Every structure is written in structure tokens, then in C-alpha cells.
Amino acid sequence: MMFSRRNFMKAGAATSAALAIPAISHAAGKTTVTLTQGVQTYQALLAELAAEFEAANPSMAVKFVADGENWDPLLNNTIRAAVVNALPDGSWQSLTYAGILASRKIAQPLNEMFGGDVKALEALGLSSTMVDATSVSGQVYCLPYGTTVPIVYCNMDLLRKAGYQKPQPPASWQEIFEVGKQVAALGGGINGGYIEYTSTNAWMFQNLLNSFGGKMMNDSRTDIAFDGAGGRQALETLYRFGDILKTDMTQEQSRQAFKAGATAMHIQSASGTASTAKAVAGHFELAISQFPVESTNGRLAGAGHGFFMFTKDPAKQRVVWEFMKFATSQKGQIILAKNSGYMPINIAALKDPGFLDAYLKINPYHRGIVDRLAITGDQFSFPSDNTVKIVQMMADEMHDVVTQRAKPDAVLAQMASQTRKLLG
Fold first, then answer.
1. Pfam families of this UniProt entry (predicted)?
2. Dihedral angle at the C-alpha atoms of 29, 35, 41, 47, nearest 10 degrees?
């Protein structure tokens, strides 16, 4: 699942102010806090997480309240709730919203909870890259819970039919394009490969850019930074897909084409491994390869989520903080793996043979990609209400690159000028 920041001030579903947010409860010495969530398909995940937390902490409890039909509506409702002073105690939201929630003083900084020492967060298993993704001006505003990264899904039957002989799937862009051309040459409308360049928030462009050592904006966020060498390499990579792609498709069409055996290599989120494996079982051999990171300082942009603290009450803050830590723990991370396709963010847990074995029994196709988490941060969102317009413009420009209607250099210049204009 991908996240984007879109139309967060637009009128939509019922606001948080209309929700009956229960007050803190001290019955029988138990303190209960309320957290909002906006992804209804994960109700079982959150219910199990809350139940296990309460079992481990009898004096505390967490109640989840649905507030919106997805991540964006949840953000909308959270902002409205802040306006009318009806915020819950916390919320499960996309990590990319940290900047918005911090700048509007909705999310509470967590530094006092862990003594302001980032090493304390590293002890919880969080990588420095992931901590950076949840920080604004030196303050941490969220504890991540899970994430996903882009990976390469491979139809090994098609690759072998085209003459590919290695037992493992292609590992570099050069290999991907070489064998992709061989597959496309088979005819019959078979695609050598497809990359989901239309993913929301320009997520795939961000990953290509980051993998080549680039970044979207400078550190002070006063100007764009993607118009350098990294951005050029990203678009040049996309351009080469035009050599192996027989039919341009929408994102959903591309996924169905891969599952039907009409595409040899498909690049999308790792969160789709379980559903894809189920769909292709018995039809062809599926293999997973890492998204190529060919720069020594390359990294990936995850699509993560985590828990934010809104309450200012010390007693409730303690409960929310303990719940955050529980979610990050091995037990919380296994609950995540059991109930979703997301990847754990606890790097320390992934180094524990017992945890890793249990996790990979649930998600065996993640075996070859978990080490990517060490270089995975989170996706970037422009500090502007025009973010949606910017990333939609980028998707349109990338379409011209992938279909080879325009050259990478010209498109990069256009993306840069249009982004600067929209940023004001």
C-alpha cells in the first residue's frame, strides 16, 4: 500500500469532532487511551496488538477508533479535530505526515520520553535512517511500526525461456534490461519488465533517485535537489524500460499482467508478496530480487507508518509511549507480520535468529530483502499544499520517459521548473 498527502483540508467524511472519543478511564486502576486509525482492513492487526499490550501491561489499555477510510482521510479528520480541540490521545498514521502534524503542533515531540538520546531509540531496534524519517528540527514525533520497500518480482519461467541461466534472479539494472530485451524479443505481446512509475507521491522516482545518491530537496528544504546527477540517472533508468515494455499499462493492469504471466519482471512494493505468490502459485516459479542500489551512498525510501502521540496529559502520555515501545518490540513486530504484508522496522529483532525464523516462515519471500531495511528511510513529501499537483506532474512527465516520447534531460528540466513554480 502506498501513501500520499492529498487534499488534507478538503471536506470529506465525518470529522473527528463527531466521534465519541472516550475519556481516560481509571477504573480498577487501569488507564485507557484512544488512538485513531484509518485503514479498516487492518482491524484484526490492531485488535491483536492492543490485546497483547494489555495482557503485558494490566494497568494500561489502548482503544482504537476508526476515523476515515484511509490514510489521507484520517489526516484530514485529525487536522479538523485539532481545530475544535477534539484530538484523540494518539493515532496510527503514515510516517510522511510527521512534518504536517509537527508543524501544526498536533503531534507531541517524544524526546523527553526517551531522554533525548537517539541511542535509546537504536536500542529499541530503530535504524538512524528510520529515526531521521520521523524527526523534524531535531525532535522525534513518531515511533515507526512497519514499512515496505520496492522489490523486483520475477517470472523465472519466462526468464529461462528467454535464455537466462542463473539460478538467482537479475540483481542489477544492466542484468534486468539485458534479459528484459530477450524476453520482449519472444513476441506475443510479452513484456520484459514494468516499473510502477505512477505510484503515489512519486514513490518509485524517489527510490530511483535515492538509490543513486540523490534527494528530493536540500536539507533546509529551500530548494529542490532532484535535478542533479541522481535525478538524471533515475530518469535514464526509466527510459530504458521503454526498450523492454511492449504495452504501457495502469498500475492495476500491470499487476494483473504479471500475475497472468505476460510480464517477466515487475517492480512494486514488497507488501504485495503474499497476494502475488498466492495468485501465481501453480502457474510459474516466482522469485524476488532486491531493488538495485548501485551508489555507495544509495538508500531507499520506504512507505512506512507508525504511532503519533497527541495527548499532553502525563499519565496518558506514559500509556501511549509504552504502547509505542510494545509495537516496536519483537512481539509487536510479529503481530504486524502475521496480519499484513508490511516489513518489520526493528533491525535488532531481525538479527535475532529466532525472530527472523518466525518472520520468514510467515513471509518467506522477504528472506532476500530484509537487509535493505538498514538503508531504508521514508518517502518524502514536499512542504507545500501543492504536493499532489507536483507528484501528479511528475507522473505525467515520467510517462513520457517510460514510453520514450521524451528524453530524460528534457524531462528533468521540465520537472525541476514546474516543481519550483508550484513550490512558489
1. SBP_bac_8, TAT_signal
2. -10
Do 374 and 300 form a contact (C-beta atoms < 8 A)? no
Its domain, for residue 70, covers 16-148+303-378
DSSP, collapsed to helix, strand or coil, labels residue 291 as coil
Q: What percent of the chain has pLDDT over 70?
A: 93
71-93 pLDDT per residue, tens: 889 998 999 999 999 999 999 99
Cell numbers given for 211:
538509490
Q: 377 is written with which cell numbers?
A: 528511510
Give how many domains the chain has, as a whole number.
Answer: 2
Q: Indicate whether 279 belongs to any domain.
A: yes
Handedness of CA 174, 179, 181, 184 (dihedral sign): negative
Are 45 and 108 members of one domain?
Answer: yes
Is pLDDT at 2 greater than 70 in this prediction? no
Q: How many CB atoms lie within 10 A of CB 21?
A: 17
Query: Cβ(173)–Cβ(292) under 8 Å?
Result: yes
Residues 6+ positions from 119 with CB-CB distance below 8 Å: none
Give 215-251 pLDDT, tens digit per residue. Answer: 999 988 899 999 999 999 999 999 999 999 998 899 9
